[in-house]
Design a protein that fits this description.
Helix content is 0%, strand content 48%. The chain has 63 residues and is mainly beta. The two termini are 19 Å apart.
Length: 63
Amino acid sequence: MLPLKPGKTYSITYEVLGAEDGAVIQTMELSDQTSLTFRATVLSTASRGVKLTAKVTDIEEQG
């Protein structure tokens, strides 16, 4: 696991699986270990019983 440094910003890329249209890749930003910024996305599933899952695919320290 990547140790987080105070005052730094991290770009976290993740993949959401289970959506009707296929995998969705998104990125969120974590600043100063406390502020998480992301864009909300609406996804459809093929049926009510399908569960969406997400996994982190990359973490990058910014500047």
